[in-house]
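Issue: ligand-bound run for magnesium ion - logging full I/O for the record.

Environment: standard queue, default settings, no custom constraints.

Inputs:
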Amino acid sequence: MAAKPTSRLKKILGRIEGLDEGGLAGVLGLVERDRSLLDSLFNVLRDGVLVADTRGRIRFLNPAAGNLLGIRPDETGKIGLWQVLPDLARTLDMAPDGRWRAVASVTRELEVIYPARRVLRVALLPLGETSLEGETLAAVILTDLSNDLARSEERVEAGRTESVMDLAAGVAHELRNPLNAINIHLQLIGRHARRAEDSPAVRKMVEAADVCRREVARLDGIISNFLGAVKPSELVLRESDALGLLEETLTTVGPELADAGVHVEVRVPGERPPSVLADPDQLKQVFFNLLKNAREAMSAGGGSLTVQAGTDDEAVILVIADNGGGMTEAELSQLFTPYFTTKRGGTGLGMMIVQRILRAHGGSVGVDSKKGAGTVVTIRLPRKEKRVRMLA
Ligand code: ADP
Ligand code: MG
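Outputs:
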């Protein structure tokens, strides 16, 4: 496609001396039209495109390239390619005079930190015969990979969590069979003992068998709770009032919070958020886990817990903030890891379950925390009409 205007132009240029004023205006019109077509094309491209000579002088760049590399339009020609992508220069075969030998195309994935931390795929493609003021040119195509990477890392992490949970759920399930057998045999021991002649020794045996059975029942309860928590149960989606469910959970745990001296405030600055498609029981489990963590973080001498609700274009947003002990960066980075806990008797499963449930809803959970200052948990649930995106 690009070859056509050039060759047409070449033909006309060959005859340019013979052209009158009208003919010349026509040619300029054609040139202008082609140019503005290319301009608009480069302006709408999401990939960054720039043209540099082999010394690294930038001769042209589109707005996307300017954004990705932090170059203002008025800096074109003043900033060199090797300056903005020094890592690229390092990987190239440079001549002693700083020229790049423009013979082959080169593709690199580079991390840039200015104007934002991003991973870019940079493709450097020699433009062949095209030259400007005697300099050979190369096109540089910049593709922002950051989002793709973040998404695939998230997927890997979610997969890892799932498989740990599957394993744990499997083990817990397997424990039930021997427990059942133990239970039955304890019943038998009790029955035989009761039939035996009464004596202090027999009475002690009956008592011991009863203690064992109670402990077995307790173990069974622990396993049920654990399975209930980690086994991904099917979502039963209903039109739900997320804030309403959070308020219900607050009412349930209200007495406990009051006992711990925690002051609770619910703020809804705008209208109440619209309904979302969600599994109400599972959402309550999310809120319960978060409120429990907040309370545990504020154990010493009470504190204040603030719930805030809002909405943006995409999601219903619920924020739960506490001014408890907060987390160090190291703790924060482990927060969603199964079995990570800093509490005596903690399971380290609460936040992982929170994350799993919210992801299953197409939502997310974000946590900001500062040691000694407190923690802010932000939940996003896709608005009902936006769920198409999540399915895609
Ligand atoms: P558990 O509560 O059983 O420890 P969680 O997965 O709920 O497991 O939390 C993991 C860890 O994250 C906690 O042990 C605690 O160190 C930290 N944490 C979670 N929520 C908060 C909070 N609101 N404030 C401070 N630390 C928190
Ligand atoms: Mg917890």
